[in-house]
């Protein structure tokens, strides 16, 4: 093992420090500062910060030409109160690291320690600490950043911890791993009226009542079919909570989900057509907005093969598990260009609270397992 007992103690303490100070997507100023300070001690050849917002990348150069291999972790936490009974629970009201990104960062920092002691023989190793994964904006912003042009990875690897799976077991597959998804907001504009004379206004209620079942009916197929699509109504708001006014405006929020980006485009167009038709029939104005946009995440077979070889070499149990998942991960953005990507799941224990539960805490035992696997992948590429 390339980590000492002292390393492990220090890394666990660092992970727990990160856990106490979560920051939301796009706000990761202090987290990025903490990461950069820790990376400096590993003597990278270059540190690129401000990537896609608050992203930080450390670059370690080999002596010979070779591929650029990147490993990615996420900086952000969630707007969820931390209810775990832990001495290192979140100190920030209403925010917590309930997706385990504190553990992902620590795994990369463990890898950084190993790289600092044994530099790559060839090529480049890049450790990317990415902002804003939770809202789907971070990876796209990093890839679009001029600073990322200097990195241009050939291969990119990442993992996500996954409660419900045996501790340390890996789920890996070629092809689709997580779904594309996007939040869709449909905003209707009509005209208010006195509640005794609703006919003098234009209410969104008939349009909303007609539209809701139509939107839900857009779902199709089941995973792993490429035709899989799913719509989930998440919020409906009509008018104000009063008795004397017939409403003149309303909103429908929903999440669109599909296995592939191409199926998402078709689903989006279908949903928009239904919304515009309902508005026109009711004499309403309509606007459509999107947020939390995630591309599909599809593993490249060559990249996944490298992970399999590393798993076998390290004696880590793996199978395809329940992949692909209905959930989304913005890591897929790194695979939309010339980079070959592989994302795998690392079991966090079968009895642990689920991701995004208010009492979820990343298991420290995964730090060494994830770092061993990343280090093996790195050495197989770069020596």
From TrEMBL:
Pfam families: M20_dimer, Peptidase_M20
Domain Peptidase M20 dimerisation: 182-281
Presence of the UniProt keyword RNA-binding in the record: no
Keywords: Hydrolase
Signal peptide: none
Organism domain of life: Bacteria
NCBIfam families: amidohydrolases (TIGR01891)
UniProt protein name: Amidohydrolase
Annotated source species: Acidimangrovimonas pyrenivorans
Lineage, opening ranks: Bacteria, Pseudomonadati, Pseudomonadota, Alphaproteobacteria, Rhodobacterales
């Amino acid at each position: 093992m390339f980590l000492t007992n002292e390393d492990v103690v220090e890394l666990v303490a660092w992970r727990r420090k990160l856990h106490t100070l979560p920051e939301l997507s796009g706000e990761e100023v202090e987290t990025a500062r903490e990461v950069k300070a820790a990376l400096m001690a590993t003597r990278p050849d270059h540190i690129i910060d401000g990537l896609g917002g608050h992203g930080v990348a450390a670059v370690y150069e080999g002596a010979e030409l070779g591929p650029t291999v990147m490993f990615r972790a996420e900086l952000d936490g969630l707007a969820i109160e931390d209810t775990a009974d832990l001495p290192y629970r979140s100190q920030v009201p209403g925010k917590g690291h309930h997706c385990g990104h504190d553990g992902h960062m620590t795994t990369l920092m463990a890898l950084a320690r190993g790289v600092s002691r044994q530099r790559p023989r060839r090529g480049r190793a890049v450790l990317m600490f990415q902002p804003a994964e939770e809202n789907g904006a971070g990876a796209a912003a990093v890839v679009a950043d001029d600073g990322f042009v200097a990195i241009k990875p050939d291969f990119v690897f990442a993992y996500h911890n996954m409660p419900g799976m045996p501790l340390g077991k890996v789920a890996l597959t070629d092809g689709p791993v997580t779904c594309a998804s996007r939040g869709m907001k449909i905003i209707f504009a009509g005209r208010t009226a006195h509640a005794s004379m609703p006919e003098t206004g234009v209410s969104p209620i008939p349009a909303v009542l007609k539209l809701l079942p139509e939107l839900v009916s857009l779902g199709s197929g089941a995973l792993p079919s490429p035709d899989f699509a799913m719509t989930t109504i998440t919020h409906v708001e009509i008018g104000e909570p009063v008795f004397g006014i017939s409403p003149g405006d309303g909103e429908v929020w929903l999440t669109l989900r599909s296995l592939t980006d191409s199926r998402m485009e078709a689903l989006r167009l279908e949903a928009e057509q239904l919304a515009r038709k309902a508005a026109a029939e009711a004499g309403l104005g309509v606007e459509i907005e999107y947020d939390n946009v995630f591309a599909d995440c599809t593993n490249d077979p060559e990249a996944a093969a490298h992970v399999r070889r590393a798993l076998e070499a390290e004696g880590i149990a793996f199978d395809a598990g329940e992949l692909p998942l209905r959930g989304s991960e913005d890591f897929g953005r790194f695979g939309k260009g010339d980079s070959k990507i592989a994302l795998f799941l690392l079991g966090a224990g079968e009895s642990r609270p689920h991701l995004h539960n208010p009492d979820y805490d990343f298991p420290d035992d995964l730090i060494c397992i994830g770092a061993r696997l990343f280090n093996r992948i790195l050495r197989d590429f770069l020596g």
